From TrEMBL, chain A:
GO cellular component labels: ATP-binding cassette (ABC) transporter complex
Organism, as annotated: Rhizocola hellebori
Highest classification ranks of the organism: Bacteria, Bacillati, Actinomycetota, Actinomycetes, Micromonosporales
Domain called ABC transmembrane type-2: residue spans: 24-252
Domain of life: Bacteria
A GO molecular-function annotation: ABC-type transporter activity
Name of protein: Transport permease protein
GO biological process: one example: response to antibiotic
PROSITE patterns: ABC_TM2 (PS51012)
Keywords: Antibiotic resistance, Cell membrane, Membrane, Transmembrane, Transmembrane helix, Transport
Membrane topology per record: Multi-pass membrane protein
Record family assignment: Belongs to the ABC-2 integral membrane protein family.
Keyword Transport: yes
Pfam families: ABC2_membrane
Automatic annotation (TrEMBL), chain B:
UniProt domain ABC transporter: residue ranges: 2-232
Transferase in keyword set: no
Identification of the protein by name: ABC transporter ATP-binding protein
Pfam families from the UniProt entry: ABC_tran
SUPFAM superfamilies attached to this UniProt entry: P-loop containing nucleoside triphosphate hydrolases
The keyword Glycosyltransferase is annotated on this UniProt entry: no
Length: 259, 291
C-alpha cells in the first residue's frame, strides 16, 4: 500500500511539473467567471426580484452558477494532458515503466481535481469578499457539495476522454456538454425560468444537483443533513462515470493529438 | 537476463514475429538487424509489454512478463524507436522525473542522473528545455531516459537515428560500459557498423523470423566467407574467384597447383566479407526462397 501511494505521489509530482508550465488556461477559467459575475449580478438581481424566486443581491445565482459552469470547462484539464501525452508519445513510453495503468490514470486525475477545487474555492471566496454573497448555511456543507462536484467533473472528463479518439472531438464534446449541462442544470438561469417542458429534464444534469446543493446552503441556510441528496447523486454519477471511463479507456489504443 | 522462446506476435491476421527465440545474458550485447518491417520493434515492444504475444514466452530475470509485468518492467530500460520526451521540461527535469517514475529513489537518483548526463554529453545542456534541443540532442536525451539508473536489461530501438558521429561514438561507448558492468543490452539498428563496433552477438530478423544469428566472425564464415581472386597474365579466363575458409593456410597450395598447370599469375586479392555482405546475402536468399 505504501509503495502504491509512493508511486502515485511520483506520478502526481511529474504531472504537476508538466502542468505548472502552462497555468494560463486554468487562470483564465478562474478569472472569466468572476468577470461574468461582475457584469451579470445586477441582471440576476432584477430577474430574482421580478420572479420573486428568492431575495438577495443576485450573486447567490451568479457566483455558484458561473463557478459550476467554468469548473466543467476546467474538466478539460484532465483530457488535454492525456491527449498531449499521446502527441508526445510519452503515454506509450510510460507504459513500459513499473507503474500499473490505474495508478498512472489516477495520478493524472488528481492534478486537474486539485485545479478544479482551487478554482471553485477562489470564485466562491471572491463572491463572498467582493460581491457580498452571504452564505446563510454551513460552509462545510457547501465545501462538501463543491468537492463532490469537482470529482464529478473530473470523472466525466475521464469518460469523455475514453470515448473520444481525437483531441478535436474531445474539445467539442467537452464544450457542448458544459453548455448543455450549465443551461439545463440551472447554472445560467434558475431552473424555474426554463421552459416548462424542459424543467423535468433538469435533474438529469449533474450541475442541477450542484446548483441545488449550493443554493440550499447559501439561500436557505441548510447544513450537511439537507444537502445529502446532492452529494449522493453527484458522488454516484462520479463513481459511475469514473468506472465507465476507466473500463473504456484502452491504454493500448492510440489517440490522435494535435502533434 | 532475457530469454525469449518460440515467440509469435500477430497484428490481426498479419504475422509480425514467428517462432523467435533468443537469449541475452548479463553483460552481453545482442544486436538486432533486419529490414524495415522485419519485426525488430515488435520484438522490443513485446518484451516491454506493449504488444501481447499470441504464443511463446518471455522471461526477464527469470520471471515471465505475463503475470509479472511490474517486476519485469522494473528491471528494464526501454528506448522506443519513436522519440518520446517531455518538450517543456529541461533535460535534467526529464531525467529526474523519468528516474522517479522508474523507481530510482532519492540520492541514487541524483547520482544516476549526473552519470547519464555526463556519459551522453548532455551535461552542458542540463538546464535547457527539451523543445530547444536539436534533433540529435533530443534523441540522446530519449536514450538517456532509458539508461538512467542502470537497469539490468537495456533495450535500445534504433537509438542513433539523427545523431552526429561524436555523439554516436559516446552512446556506443556508454553502452559498452554498461555491458561491461553487467547490463544485458538488446540493440536494434540499421547501422551495421554499430553492431561491429559493439562486437555484439547478432540476430538478423527477416519477415518475423530469425534468419541468422551468431557472433560476427561466425556469421561471416557461415553465410558469406572469404574469397581469393586470382588474376592471370596468360589469357582466358583473366581471373578466377575461389571461396576459401582459411586464406593463409590454403593459398600456398592453390598457388602451387596453378604453377603446376603452367598458369602465369598476375596478382592475388583476398576479399574478406563484412557483416553487410552477410546481411544482404541472408535477406536476399530469403527473398528468393519466398519468391
Amino acid at each position: 500500500m505504501a509503495e502504491t501511494f509512493g508511486t502515485l505521489g511520483c506520478v502526481v509530482r511529474h504531472e504537476w511539473r508538466l502542468q505548472r508550465r502552462d497555468l494560463v488556461r486554468a487562470f483564465m477559467l478562474t478569472v472569466m467567471p468572476v468577470v461574468l459575475v461582475l457584469v451579470l449580478t445586477p441582471t440576476y438581481r432584477q430577474i430574482l426580484q421580478l420572479t420573486g424566486l428568492y431575495g438577495g443581491n443576485g450573486s447567490e445565482q451568479a457566483v455558484p452558477g458561473f463557478a459550476i459552469m467554468f469548473a466543467m470547462f476546467m474538466g478539460g484539464e484532465f483530457g488535454l494532458p492525456f491527449f498531449r501525452d499521446f502527441g508526445w508519445r510519452t503515454w506509450q513510453r510510460t507504459r513500459t515503466l513499473p507503474i500499473p495503468v490505474p495508478i498512472l490514470v489516477a495520478g493524472k486525475l488528481l492534478v486537474p481535481l486539485l485545479l478544479v477545487l482551487t478554482q471553485l474555492a477562489a470564485i466562491f471566496a471572491v463572491g463572498v469578499a467582493v460581491f457580498g454573497m452571504h452564505v446563510a448555511g454551513s460552509v462545510v456543507a457547501l465545501a462538501a457539495v463543491l468537492a463532490v462536484f469537482g470529482a464529478n467533473v473530473v470523472a466525466v472528463s475521464l469518460l469523455v476522454t475514453a470515448l473520444c479518439p481525437t483531441v478535436a472531438q474531445f474539445n467539442a464534446v467537452n464544450n457542448i456538454l458544459t453548455l448543455v449541462f450549465a443551461g439545463l442544470g440551472g447554472a445560467l438561469v434558475p431552473v424555474a425560468l426554463l421552459p416548462t417542458w424542459l424543467q423535468p429534464l433538469a435533474p438529469a444534469a449533474p450541475s442541477y444537483w450542484a446548483v441545488l446543493g449550493c443554493q440550499k446552503v447559501i439561500v436557505e441556510g441548510s447544513g450537511l443533513s439537507q444537502v445529502w441528496p446532492s452529494v449522493a447523486v453527484l458522488g454516484g454519477v462520479a463513481l459511475a462515470a469514473g468506472t465507465a471511463g476507466a473500463l473504456l479507456l484502452r491504454p493500448d489504443r492510440g489517440k490522435e493529438s494535435w502533434g | 537476463m532475457l530469454q525469449i522462446a518460440d515467440l509469435e506476435v500477430h497484428y490481426g491476421t498479419h504475422p509480425a514475429l514467428l517462432g523467435v527465440s533468443l537469449v541475452v545474458g548479463r553483460g552481453q550485447v545482442v544486436g538486432l538487424l533486419g529490414r524495415n518491417g522485419a519485426g525488430k520493434s515488435t520484438l522490443v515492444n513485446a518484451v516491454a509489454g506493449l504488444v501481447k504475444p499470441s504464443r511463446g514466452s518471455i522471461l526477464v530475470g527469470g520471471l515471465d512478463v505475463r503475470g509479472n509485468a511490474r517486476a519485469t518492467s522494473a528491471m528494464m530500460g526501454v528506448s522506443p524507436q519513436e522519440l518520446a520526451i517531455y518538450p517543456p521540461l529541461t533535460v535534467t527535469e526529464n531525467l529526474v522525473g523519468w528516474a522517479a517514475l522508474a523507481g530510482v529513489g532519492g540520492r541514487q537518483r541524483r547520482l544516476a542522473v549526473r552519470e547519464v548526463l555526463e556519459a551522453m554529453g548532455l551535461d552542458r545542456l542540463a538546464d535547457r528545455p527539451a523543445h530547444l534541443l536539436s534533433g540529435g540532442e533530443q534523441r540522446r536525451l530519449h536514450c538517456a531516459m532509458a539508461m538512467v539508473g542502470r537497469p539490468p536489461l537495456l533495450m535500445l530501438d534504433e537509438p542513433t537515428v539523427g545523431v552526429d558521429p561524436p555523439s554516436r561514438r559516446a552512446l556506443l561507448d556508454y553502452v559498452g560500459t554498461l555491458a561491461s558492468a553487467g547490463t544485458a543490452v538488446l540493440y536494434s539498428t540499421h547501422y551495421l557498423t554499430e553492431i561491429e563496433q559493439l562486437g555484439a552477438y547478432t540476430v538478423i530478423l527477416h519477415r518475423g523470423r530469425v534468419a541468422a544469428c551468431g557472433d560476427i566472425d561466425s556469421l561471416v564464415r557461415d553465410f558469406s566467407g572469404t574469397t581469393v581472386e586470382i588474376a592471370f597474365s596468360d589469357g582466358s579466363p583473366p581471373s578466377v574467384r575461389i571461396p576459401v575458409a582459411d586464406p593463409d593456410g590454403e593459398l600456398p597450395g592453390i598457388i602451387a597447383g596453378l604453377h603446376g598447370q603452367g598458369r602465369a599469375l598476375a596478382g592475388i586479392t583476398v576479399h574478406r566479407s563484412s557483416l553487410e555482405d552477410v546481411f544482404f546475402r541472408v535477406t536476399a536468399e530469403k527473398e528468393l526462397v519466398r519468391g
